[in-house]
Write a structure and sequence with these properties.
The protein is mostly helical. 71% of the residues lie in helices and 5% in strands. A hairpin with a 2-residue loop joins strand 1 and strand 2. Helix 1 runs antiparallel to helix 5. The two termini are 41 Å apart.
Length: 503
């Protein structure tokens, strides 16, 4: 039955993983399709250079004109804006989506995000002008801001036990990697042998099916839970989370981990063609081998985090060092085979950083704020968007000024220098004992207050504390949502103080 909490958690994980897979496939699937399509529809003014060649044919000399160079005016700049527009719009929309998710819950914003992604993908399929394609890319950024943030927050909310949460978020991150690395060959093959519409229509149907599944699961969950007239849970606003030093450290680490990928993505293909005479198919699949070390990194980090929870922050520092060293080695590679190894190192390092720090954000909210995760995962999405919005623009500028080699050395050194910053995170894992003790004191305090008011000594069996916002099991407790069996709040002032963390 869909009402069973365990089955619902599994379905939520499948739905969110599918949404993250879809978003990252949409992000990268346009790479082999849109540049070629815009040339075919003559979106740019074409300037061709010719030279006269003298040829000897049939016993006589003839002069013939041969095209030696073709320049598409405005192509590089326009494509750069097209590719980066998604991240820019997502960067702007994330504060709004995070705040809205905290207020209304996770399901409605995620369904909205998936529907917007469906519309944008449909426009990509049938759009025949640069303006329409640019509009579709911007709409994709809005959809991603809602679907990705709500999805990660939903996993953190449903999987309240730390071991299960690490495993669930690790699975979701593996799907992000798969979508990012698999979509270019997926889109290129379908575009080559079918047409532009086929890959986008497939992904549009995928988005619609995922939204429908979420709607079905959400409706069954609402029927299985009794209605409670409880006020909204107080939560930390996004600006307060942004000012938290530990959130800032995590956000910076996520940016640094993805900057290498964001800088290399638009520059490595040209470098491969110029310096190692790489074929087109080699340029297209260079990132594909990195999928396997990324999945292994996710698996390894989840295992180690569950075994040694208090050292979870260290895996992020190790990952940043691996990214930095691998990035510095890329310019030294002279063959396609040699280039695979540092690329795999970068993907492995990114897996360690993301898998260690994405669950740490929800854990940080658990021990310091109220268990509402929309804003904190909006900050994570902002970190990714910053890297991918400014990375391609800055990378092209640096390559133009000082070259590809200096770009990689600069990024590699920056990643290694930032890695010690994660040591500041060790404090949050020491707060767990204080967190549990404080919650136990809150339960005792509520029993004392209510018992004193009513002249009755309430036993622990007579009361329960409902911890998790929208918890599917109905177990546990949270200082922001305390009710007795009759559904009444003990004292509004006490509840507010507990929610604000004052006692």
């Amino acid at each position: 039955r869909l009402e069973e909490p365990k089955l619902q958690r599994i379905l939520v994980l499948v739905i969110v993983s599918a949404a993250l897979l879809l978003d990252n496939m949409l992000y990268m699937v346009i790479v082999p399709i849109i540049p070629d399509y815009l040339r075919k529809i003559h979106a740019w003014d074409v300037h061709t250079k010719y030279k006269v060649v003298r040829e000897f044919r049939e016993g006589s000399w003839y002069n013939s004109t041969v095209a030696v160079d073709t320049y598409y005016e405005g192509e590089d700049t326009s494509l750069g804006f097209l590719f980066a527009s998604k991240a820019f719009i997502q960067l702007i929309a994330n504060p709004v989506s995070g705040t809205l998710i905290d207020r209304v819950g996770y399901e409605i914003p995620m369904i909205f995000g998936l529907f917007v992604m469906f519309v944008s993908t449909t426009i990509f399929a049938f759009g025949e002008t640069y303006v329409l394609l640019f509009l579709a890319r911007c709409m994709q950024g809005v959809g991603s801001a809602f679907a990705d943030t709500a999805g990660l927050a939903m996993i953190a909310d449903r999987f309240t036990e730390e071991t299960e949460r690490n495993r669930a978020l690790g699975i979701a991150l593996a799907f992000i990697s798969f979508g990012f690395l698999f979509s270019p060959p997926f889109g290129g093959i379908l575009y080559e042998f079918a047409d532009k519409e086929v890959p986008f229509l497939f992904l549009a149907c995928f988005a619609l099916a995922d939204a429908g599944m979420l709607l079905l699961v959400s409706s069954h969950r609402q029927r299985s839970q009794p209605t409670r007239n409880t006020p909204p849970i107080p939560h930390a606003p996004i600006y307060k989370l942004l000012l938290d030093p530990l959130v800032m450290v995590i956000s910076g680490a996520l940016i640094m981990a993805n900057v290498s990928l964001a800088f290399l993505e638009p520059t490595i293909a040209t470098w491969m063609e110029d310096y190692m005479n790489a074929e087109q198919w080699q340029q297209g699949i260079i990132w594909l081998p990195g999928f396997f070390p990324h999945v292994f990194g996710v698996y390894l980090c989840v295992k180690l985090s569950n075994m040694y929870a208090k050292t979870q922050y260290m895996y992020a520092g190790i990952g940043l060092c691996i990214i930095g060293v691998s990035t510095c080695f890329i310019p030294a590679c002279s063959t396609f085979t040699a280039l695979i190894f540092p690329i795999c190192g970068i993907c492995f390092g990114i897996a360690l950083v993301d898998t260690a720090l994405i669950p740490a954000l929800s854990y940080l909210v658990d021990v310091r704020y109220t268990k509402v995760y929309g804003s904190v995962y909006a900050i994570a999405d902002i970190s990714y968007s910053l890297a991918y919005a400014f990375g391609p623009v800055v990378a092209g500028w640096i390559v133009h000024l000082v070259g590809f080699t200096f770009l990689n050395i600069l990024v590699g050194i920056a990643s290694c220098l930032y890695s010690p910053m994660v040591l500041y995170l060790r404090g949050i894992y020491g707060e767990q004992a204080d967190f549990v003790a404080r919650r136990q004191e809150e339960v005792a305090l509520i029993d004392d207050v209510e018992g004193g008011d009513k002249g009755t000594d309430y036993s622990k069996e007579q009361r329960f504390v409902d911890v998790s916002y929208q918890d599917m099991d109905g177990n546990g407790y949270n200082s922001s949502n305390i009710i007795d069996k009759s559904g009444n709040f003990p004292r509004d002032d006490l509840r507010q103080k507990l929610a604000d963390g004052l006692i």
